[in-house]
């Protein structure tokens, strides 16, 4: 009779944010490795923040599609946030905006509380490190968010628990 080790319970993270400042063929291997490690966490949602990114190429779009497929298979969602107008046009030309949610901070917050019908919720704070990206204006995140951040080359990863 074979004895098997007890299975560890599956663990997942609700939200992982990745800030990418360079997203093209030259940095694809290291960015892909970061995203592989990130997907091993089984996140429910991955948000790729492109606010500091000036360019995206076909190889990066292919990587986004691969991560999207893997997220869908695992029951998760991949979203892109804050692309500049040039990257937005590239995403639209590639029709990626029809596959992935693409958000800007301007869309997330209504102009006034009256527009939303109620007081808007405070935006979730994020801490990103590396590649010239710092914490958001307004200080440290609330204790309930407790992000853990680690920098990997040109991509900064923030895990929210």
Automatic annotation (TrEMBL):
InterPro entries: MlaB-like_STAS, STAS_dom, STAS_dom_sf. It comes from the Bacteria. SUPFAM superfamilies: SpoIIaa-like. Gene3D superfamilies: STAS domain. Residues 1-113 form the STAS domain. This is STAS domain-containing protein. It comes from Micromonospora sediminimaris.
